[in-house]
Amino acid sequence: QVQLVESGGGLVHAGASLRLSCAASGRTFSPFSRYAVGWFRQSPGKEREFVAAITSDGRTNYVDSVKGRFTISRDNAKNTVYLQMNSLKPEDTALYYCAADRGGRDPALYAYWGQGTQVTVSS
Q1: Is the peptide bond before 90 cis (omega within 30 degrees of 0)?
Q2: Which residues pair with 75 in a beta bridge?
Q3: What does residue 121 show for φ and ψ, rounded to 5 degrees?
Q4: Taking residues 26-37, what's their average pLDDT?
Q5: Which of 49, 42, 88, 46 minimizes the C-alpha distance to 69?
Q6: What is the mean pLDDT of the chain?
């Protein structure tokens, strides 16, 4: 069974921080280190938006709106990728998904998806 499970979402005030986790399990993710992982988000009525990605060798990529505020990292020993989100803004409110596969900004490049974790930022 292949599974990606996100956690760490919640309701916070603007300016606060959250750390999202994406834990991978299943034989497909062995070794997890060979997969790129991305974070995407989706708000009601909007398309799924790329947020950040990390390659198998640790290179990172961010959407402009989160640069300097969000940091993606990975711990291959724990099969987990993190998204540290600082200085959160109300416009960051969305359902956040992690995905694993080839990497990049296009959701179509990812075959494996989690169920999402809700982030709500109040003003």
Answers
A1: no
A2: 80
A3: -115, 120
A4: 84
A5: 88
A6: 95
CA 29 to chain CA centroid, nearest Å: 17
- Alpha carbon distance 32, 76 (integer Å): 6
- Nearest Cα neighbor of 37 from 68, 69, 6 is 6
Q: Minimal CA–CA distance to 56: which of 22, 83, 79?
A: 79
Q: What proportions of the chain, in percent to the nearest 5, are helix, strand and coil? A: 15, 50, 35
Tell whether the model's pLDDT for residue 2 goes beyond 80. no
pLDDT of residue 1: 65
- Both tokens assigned to 62: 């961010």
* DSSP code for 57: T
Dist. CA 50–CA 66, nearest whole Å: 10
Within 8 A by CB and 6+ apart from 52, the residues are 38, 39, 60, 61, 62, 63, 66, 70, 72, 83
Residue 114: strand pairing partners? none
